[in-house]
Design a protein that fits this description.
The chain has 253 residues and is mainly alpha-helical. The protein has eleven helices and no strands. The protein starts with a helix and ends in a 10-residue tail after the last helix. InterPro entries: ABC2_TM, ABC_2_transport, Nod_factor_ABC_transporter.
Length: 253
């Protein structure tokens, strides 16, 4: 198997999975449009409580982390639909390498997750006049956070047994992780035990990394990105190991 053939097959899978995503654009569009409406309605509350600059930053960061966690379904759904349709087994029976199948799934989802976050940040900058003096550290955090979401979503996709379970997992889990991480309500305004438990949530490190990137605190950005990449690697490794079972069949349908 030559590298050129591997790249070609992977590219075909990427295009195929992107086409499947675009044929059912409803979930993707909702994850793009709803955050902007939520941000517009939420920002005046934060501005009134924290001032224009701090309130706008809190609203943008909180919206980004919360709705990106709710977008975990995009990642999980891409794998779960293959399992439910028994097409994963058919793909494994071809000349495709497991790594090619995973990359073919991951690239369109990663692009969708990153596009959602860039859209929210862009809306904050262009419409809400949010200041981003250090765009490169911010982009680094967004890339690391997208990797984390991709890993968590993939793990959900191989563990749950139905679309209903997946929906409950990312709805409930997304709200809990974002709330625990201080996305919607600053941790200083929450009970002490929540602030103490907050670092267990990936959302906490996303919030800390995004705020540090806006402030130009590269040390905190590096720490946050490191933690997010560790979480992404762990979840991705667990998902890959689980998919190496018999055809990736984890449920009795």
């Amino acid at each position: 198997m030559s590298p050129r053939e591997s790249v070609f097959r992977t590219g075909v899978l990427v295009r195929h999975n992107l086409l499947l995503m675009l044929r059912e654009p409803g979930p993707l569009l909702s994850r793009m449009i709803l955050p902007l409406a939520f941000l517009t309605l939420l920002r005046p509350l934060y501005v009134a409580a924290q001032g224009r600059a701090a309130g706008t930053e809190q609203a943008v960061v909180g919206t980004l982390v919360t709705f990106s966690l709710l977008a975990l379904g995009i990642s999980g759904n891409s794998i779960l639909t293959e399992r439910l349709g028994r097409t994963w087994d058919r793909m494994r029976g071809t000349a495709l390498h497991p790594a090619e199948m995973l990359v073919g799934k991951a690239v369109p989802v990663f692009a969708a997750l990153l596009a959602q976050q860039l859209l929210i940040v862009g809306f904050g900058v262009c419409v809400l006049d949010m200041s981003v003096p250090h765009p490169l550290p911010l982009l680094g955090v967004l890339l690391c956070w997208s990797c984390t979401l991709l890993g968590i979503g993939a793990l959900l996709g191989v563990l749950v047994r139905s679309m209903g379970e997946l929906s409950a997992a990312y709805d409930i889990g997304g709200m809990l992780l974002s709330s625990l991480g201080g996305a919607l309500v600053p941790l200083g305004a929450m009970p002490g035990w929540i602030a103490a438990a907050a670092p267990v949530s990936p959302g906490y490190w996303a919030v800390q990394g995004l705020r540090a990137a806006v402030a130009g605190d590269t040390r905190t950005v590096a720490t946050a990105c490191g933690v997010l990449l560790v979480v992404a690697s762990a979840c991705g490794a667990l998902a890959a190991v689980r998919l190496q079972g018999r055809g990736g069949r984890l449920v009795a349908l």
